[in-house]
Give the backbone structure.
Amino acid sequence: VLKNICVSLSFCLVLSVSSSTLAGLIEPLPAIPPIPADNTMTPEKVELGKMLFFDPLLSGSKWISCATCHNPAMGFTDRLPRALGHGMSEGPRNTPTVLNAAFIKPQFWDGRAATLEEQALGPIQADVEMKHSLEGAVEDINKMPEYVEMFRKVFGGDKPVTPENIAKAIAAFERTVITPDSPLDRYLEGDVQALSPEAARGFQLFQDKGCIACHNGPALTDGGFHIIKVPGSVDLGRYNVTKEESDKYSFRTPTLRNVALTWPYMNNGSVATLREAVEVMGREALHTNLSPEEVSDIEAFLNALTGDMPRFEYPILPSGRL
Ligand code: HEC
Ligand code: HEC
């Protein structure tokens, strides 16, 4: 049977409604994410990237690191509606998780960076995030002999500390923060007990109602842009990147992996709970009213998307003074 799922004016998908085919749109999380040929992973590079991820040296204030907003103890987010950055100023958008970002393309709510490497240099320079300059960051790192030695070992050359290499190391670390083995993954691999009856019903609804049209693939995002009216959003989203009229108010589908940990929700953090997020999606993405029971089942399914958190040792940063 073929079913025409039109979830928004600009987005129709013809799907076979046999649930096994639909389930095929969602894969277990692969053990290893895609790794670009020009940024191979080595343990030393990952270690360096981890240090940089935690180091406020990369910020203008020397007070904010990537981990300030992407806090590993809270699903690599900040649990704030919108991020607080340099000078405690509030940015316009909610902090997405870095967990499994290695499986997502493009990066950012508006997709303005194609890769993790491209993404990493954005926050260092953003006024509402770390407010440093790349030259300044390179200069600061060069004042720490331990870092220079590590960059030399990992990248070689006379001047190994470059913005490009900073980005490569951070991206290599980010490719290690993935969360396999969620109840959904175990279910997809054949363990039918892995989902509770509610969550299993929720997974069926997730497919039948059409959530899966946008939330698919290993990270449960299609990497596409969609216009969905979320409460209070005034952000032009993808339009800021393309200046295409049809992109106004559209945002890249976020991952749903670990979504139980990464509240609040939506590009502007306007939705506090998972239940409310499901209701908003039913209404605004699918133009349908989900019954309270359906919402509960889908919520149970979303709660089954929490995987094994990456385990790593907290880095000890160079203690030199600038
Ligand atoms: C002040 C808080 C803050 C800091 C510091 C910060 N981020 Fe972010 N991060 C955000 C916000 C907010 C977004 C979404 C911005 C947007 O989409 O416009 C984001 C987006 C991302 C994304 C994209 C995820 C996705 O699903 O598209 C990645 C990856 C990321 N940050 C990694 C980093 C790294 C690496 C650093 C350090 C170099 C860093 N962030 C520093 C708040 C922060
Ligand atoms: C047309 C594509 C599309 C469909 C269909 C869709 N979503 Fe979404 N979903 C999105 C986009 C895009 C966002 C981000 C919206 C924004 O912030 O502007 C989102 C956000 C979410 C969020 C919040 C995630 C976060 O981290 O902020 C949840 C939860 C969610 N969707 C669940 C669902 C469920 C459950 C369904 C089915 C009832 C569904 N979605 C249907 C595209 C879609």
In short: The mean pLDDT is 93. Residues 7-8, 11, 209-211, 213-215, 226, 228, 230, 233, 251, 253-254, 256, 259, 262, 265-267, 277-278, 281-282, 285-286, 298, 302 surround heme C (ligand 2) (CB under 6 Å). The two ends are 66 Å apart (CA to CA). The CA atoms of residues 165 and 305 lie 33 Å apart.
